[in-house]
Design goal:
With about 475 residues, this protein is of the alpha+beta class. It is built from six helices and 20 strands. About 45% of the residues lie in helices and about 25% in strands. The chain has a six-stranded antiparallel β-barrel with strand order 2-11-14-13-12-15. Strands 3-10-7-5 form a four-stranded antiparallel sheet, with no helix packed on it. The radius of gyration is 59 Å and the shape is elongated. The two termini are about 45 Å apart.
């Protein structure tokens, strides 16, 4: 049994190798002129036509200024018919209502603080002006006193001191002269009575007092000249520097203190404006959460954007407990009698041969046996992020409009556009053409001798599996196809 299986395996491999070496003969194709029709096939979706006025569609979204947590409690379902002013969503606003209440109370305190700061600033302005005036007056008076000291008080003190010394000396001289006269007079009498003795003694005491007074006045004069006056000069000089520094500092400091007070008030005013705006924004956000219908119509989940009906993101959000993101369209209100267009997207290859004037026919997937003549509008001259071009189709006449009357938003359809149609066009199968490295194209033409000849051809348009031949081949020639 084993040798038999081994031989069978050898036979099978050998047979496979033999079959692989057999070449399959190429098919022959006779080149003929005939009908040539170039078409674009598109899948389209029914969308409401965006209009103004009563027929406008209304996206439902919210863009709160400060409040971020917008949680859904209840909502009208997709497809609901609504009237203008009817509520669409019910939102949990308890936290926001408490925030507004607390903020309103806080605003009363903020306004009182601001009013007090305004009063304090007015008082500070008056006090600053008074303090600056007083500081100036005090400094000017000190300068006047200092100047008077240098010009009058100091020189006069020196004169008075010298005068007191001189007067003491003069009085000593008078007292000495008086004693000398008494002694002389009593000596001439040759007799000194007890009374005269008393007078002489008293005169001598006066002389001693005068001598001590002279010494005292000389000491006082010396003290004033060598100690007191230099000290007074130093005190006045230091006081002048101090007074000037204090005055200049006061001139700088008081306006700065006032400016700081003004800045504090300006900040309080700014904070007050911000707080007022925040409160107003909170109230405005609260009003937004009423979500009332701006017009009559039908609710459609999601939004109509970029030629598409987008529902995926809205479907995730529109649910009990869903948190609504800012500026996101949740639903769209579409008028009951809204007109439809059918949107499709062209590839780059299709865009190259597309023309808005070309004939188009539309067949609804729900009724493929009715062909509707449509006209096209290229919505965007430039591609979207998927490198596609949006094109819209609408009924070309009243008959087509009547046929589309039963279509609904989201209805699917197939659109055919004939981009070229001619009767006598020379064409070849696409698989018969070879693209060469030098940028040319060629086919294999059967010759009378039986051997094929590689012949370059110039190509034109493509229609399905056909390529238009502009030159290089003639009607009736036979070419090879793989």
């Amino acid at each position: 049994m084993k040798p038999f299986k081994s031989n069978s395996l050898v036979f099978t491999v050998a047979g496979a190798l033999a079959l692989s070496s057999i070449s399959i003969p190429a098919a022959e194709h006779t080149v003929k002129s005939g009908p040539f029709e170039q078409t674009i096939q598109l899948q389209a979706t029914g969308m409401p036509i965006v209009e103004l006025g009563e027929n406008a569609i209304h996206p439902i979204s919210i863009k709160p200024e400060v409040w971020s947590v917008v949680k859904i409690e209840k909502f009208l379902p997709h497809g609901s018919s609504v009237k203008k002013g009817e509520k669409l969503f019910w939102i949990d606003t308890e936290a926001l209502d408490k925030k507004i209440e607390a903020f309103t109370k806080e605003r009363v305190k903020q306004r009182l603080v601001l009013n007090k700061a305004e009063i304090d600033l007015a008082s500070k302005k008056a006090a600053t002006a008074e303090s600056l005036a007083k500081a100036k007056l005090d400094y000017e008076r000190f300068q006047e006193n200092y100047d008077y000291y240098k010009k009058v008080t100091k020189p006069q003190q020196a004169i008075d001191t010298e005068y007191k010394v001189k007067r003491a000396k003069d009085y000593l001289s008078y007292t000495q002269e008086e004693l000398d006269q008494l002694l002389k007079m009593y000596d001439e009498d040759g007799l000194t009575e007890e009374t005269e003795e008393i007078i002489i003694t008293r005169s001598k005491h006066s002389l001693a007092d005068s001598q001590r007074n002279v010494e005292k006045e000389e000491r006082v004069a010396h003290y004033k000249k060598s100690i007191a006056t230099p000290r007074n000069d130093a005190d006045w000089s230091i006081s002048a520097v101090t007074k000037k520094r204090v005055y200049e500092l006061t001139q700088k400091k008081l306006p700065i203190d006032l400016k700081l007070k003004e800045l504090d008030l300006a900040k309080l005013k700014s904070d007050d404006e911000k707080a007022e705006k925040q409160l107003n924004d909170l109230k405005a956000d609260r009003a937004l959460m009423e979500f009332k219908a701006p017009a009559d119509g039908v609710l459609y989940l999601g939004e109509f954007q970029g030629g598409k009906w987008l529902t995926e993101e809205a479907n995730k959000i529109v649910r009990k407990g869903g948190v609504i993101p800012a500026s996101m369209t949740l639903m769209t209100i579409v008028p009951v009698d809204a007109k439809l267009k059918f949107n499709a997207f062209l590839s780059e290859k299709q865009k190259r041969i597309f023309n808005v004037d070309q004939t188009g026919s539309l067949r609804l997937n729900s009724n493929r046996w009715v062909s509707i003549s449509v006209e096209a509008e290229l919505v965007n001259e430039h591609p979207n992020f998927s490198h596609q071009w949006l094109v819209s189709f609408t009924a070309k006449d009243d008959v087509g409009a009547a046929a589309l009357a039963g279509a609904m938003i989201g209805s699917k359809a197939e659109v055919s556009i004939v981009t070229a149609s001619e009767d006598n066009v020379l064409s070849v199968p696409t698989n018969a053409v070879k693209s060469n490295p030098d940028g040319t194209y060629s086919v294999k033409v059967m010759m009378a001798e039986g051997d094929p000849k590689v012949t370059n051809v110039e190509l034109g348009r493509q229609a399905g599996d056909k390529l238009e031949v502009l030159s290089g081949l003639e009607n009736g020639q036979v070419i090879l196809t793989p």
